[in-house]
C-alpha cells in the first residue's frame, strides 16, 4: 500500500535517531518528509495545548518569529482548536469552512502565506505535552490530498517515537545523570538516575517538572547549586541539556553547629565567644573552617545551608 520511498524513509528515520544530535535531528527529519509530501514550510513543536502555550519549536523554511503573531489569536484559531481537540489523527485546514475568513488567518497564518495546513498532534503520556508536526503550503491550487493525509498520519507516530529515542540515546552517551528540559522546566526526556536525584531533592513533582526557581537559574545562568546537588545546563536549540552531580554529605561538629547558628543570628565574633564561653579567635577559626567545609564565602550562604537539612541540630 505504501511505497518503497516511505519504507526507506522510516528505516532512515530510526537510523538517524541513533547518530544525529538533538539539534540536528528534527530539522533533518522535516527535510526528509519534504521528499514524500510537498510543502513550503514546516513546524515541529511541543507545548501545553489546552493553555495554548508553545514550549519548543523547530521551524523549517520560515521565520523563527512565526509564533509571535499567533499569541494574540491563539485562543480563536479554528485550526488549532480542531487539532488540539482531536489528537491522534491528521487534519487539514481544508476540513474547516471559513478558515481563510477567520481572524487567526487574517492576522497570523495569512501573513506567512500559509494557505493550507496539514497537522498531526499527540499527547506525550510521560510529560502530558502536546507534540505536533504541521506542514504548510502557500497556494491553494494543489491541495493536500487524501493520500498526503494518510501518509502524514502513518509517519507522524514514527517521528515522535524516533525523537524520543534520539533524546534518550544522546543522554545515555553522556555517561552522567542528565535530562532535556524546556523553557518551563518540564523534563522532556531524562535518565532514571537524573530523575532519582531530583525526586530525592525536591519530591515527586520534580519527576515531571523542576521547581520554578531552579529552572529560572538554569536558563539565566546555566547552573544551579545548593549544598547537595549541582546542575549545569547547555542550550540545545529551544531546550536545555542539564547534567546533574551530587556533593558528598558534609557534616559539622556539634560545636561548629553552635558557632554557626549563633553567628548567622547577627552576633559578632566577640558576642558568639561570650555566649559559648570561648575566645573570639576560636570563633574566627571555627567560622573559617565551616566556610571551607561547606565551600561557601559569606554569612548569607551559611544561613541558607543551616536552614536546609544539613544544619539540623
Summarize the topology.
Blueprint: H1 4-16, H2 22-33, E1 41-48, E2 53-60, H3 78-85, E3 90-92, H4 103-107, E4 116-123, E5 130-137, H5 146-172, E6 178-181, E7 187-190, H6 192-202, H7 212-221, E8 223-225, E9 229-236, E10 239-246, H8 254-264, H9 269-276, H10 280-294, H11 299-306
Antiparallel strand pairs: 1-2, 1-5, 3-4, 4-5, 6-7, 6-10, 8-9, 9-10
Helix pairs in contact: 1-5, 2-5, 8-9, 8-10, 8-11, 9-10
Explain what this protein looks like in three dimensions.
- The chain is an alpha+beta fold.
- It folds into three domains: 4-171, 2-Layer Sandwich (Beta-Lactamase), CATH 3.30.450.80; 175-246, no CATH class; 254-311, Arc Repressor Mutant, subunit A, CATH 1.10.10.
- The protein is 41% helix and 20% strand.
- The protein has helices at residues 4-16, 22-33, 78-85, 103-107, 146-172, 192-202, 212-221, 254-264, 269-276, 280-294, 299-306, and strands at 41-48, 53-60, 90-92, 116-123, 130-137, 178-181, 187-190, 223-225, 229-236, 239-246.
- The chain is elongated, with a radius of gyration of 26 Å.
- It starts with a helix and ends in a 7-residue tail after the last helix.
- The model has no long low-confidence stretch (mean pLDDT 93).
Defining traits:
Beta-Lactamase, alpha+beta, 20% strand, Arc Repressor Mutant, subunit A, 5-stranded antiparallel β-sheet, 3 domains, WH-like_DNA-bd_sf, 313 residues
Amino acid at each position: 500500500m505504501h511505497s518503497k520511498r516511505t519504507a526507506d524513509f522510516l528505516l532512515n528515520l530510526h537510523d538517524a535517531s541513533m547518530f544525529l544530535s538533538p539539534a540536528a535531528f528534527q530539522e533533518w527529519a522535516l527535510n526528509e518528509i519534504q521528499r514524500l509530501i510537498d510543502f513550503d514550510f514546516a513546524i515541529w513543536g511541543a507545548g501545553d495545548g489546552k493553555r495554548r502555550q508553545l514550549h519548543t519549536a523547530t521551524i523549517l523554511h520560515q521565520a523563527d518569529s512565526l509564533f509571535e503573531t499567533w499569541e494574540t489569536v491563539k485562543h480563536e484559531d479554528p485550526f488549532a482548536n480542531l487539532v488540539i481537540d482531536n489528537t491522534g489523527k491528521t487534519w487539514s485546514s481544508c476540513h474547516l469552512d471559513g478558515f481563510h475568513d477567520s481572524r487567526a488567518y487574517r492576522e497570523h497564518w495569512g501573513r506567512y502565506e500559509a494557505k493550507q495546513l496539514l497537522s498531526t498532534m499527540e499527547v506525550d503520556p510521560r510529560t502530558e505535552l502536546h507534540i505536533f508536526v504541521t506542514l504548510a503550503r502557500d497556494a491553494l491550487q494543489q491541495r493536500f490530498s487524501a493520500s498526503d493525509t494518510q501518509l502524514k498520519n502513518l509517519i507522524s507516530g514514527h517521528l515522535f517515537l524516533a525523537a524520543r529515542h534520539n533524546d534518550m540515546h544522546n543522554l545515555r552517551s553522556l555517561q552522567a545523570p542528565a535530562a532535556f528540559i524546556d523553557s518551563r522546566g518540564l523534563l522532556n526526556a531524562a535518565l532514571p538516575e537524573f530523575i532519582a536525584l531530583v525526586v530525592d531533592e525536591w519530591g515527586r513533582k520534580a519527576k515531571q517538572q523542576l521547581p520554578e526557581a531552579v529552572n529560572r537559574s538554569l536558563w539565566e545562568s546555566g547552573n544551579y547549586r545548593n549544598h547537595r546537588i549541582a546542575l549545569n545546563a547547555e542550550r540545545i536549540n529551544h531546550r536545555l541539556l542539564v547534567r546533574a552531580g551530587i556533593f558528598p554529605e558534609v557534616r559539622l561538629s556539634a560545636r561548629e553547629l553552635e558557632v554557626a547558628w549563633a553567628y548567622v543570628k547577627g552576633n559578632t565574633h566577640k558576642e558568639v565567644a561570650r555566649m559559648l564561653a570561648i575566645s573570639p579567635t576560636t570563633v574566627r577559626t571555627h567560622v573559617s573552617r565551616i566556610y571551607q567545609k561547606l565551600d561557601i564565602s559569606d554569612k548569607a550562604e551559611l544561613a541558607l545551608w543551616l536552614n536546609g537539612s544539613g544544619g539540623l541540630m
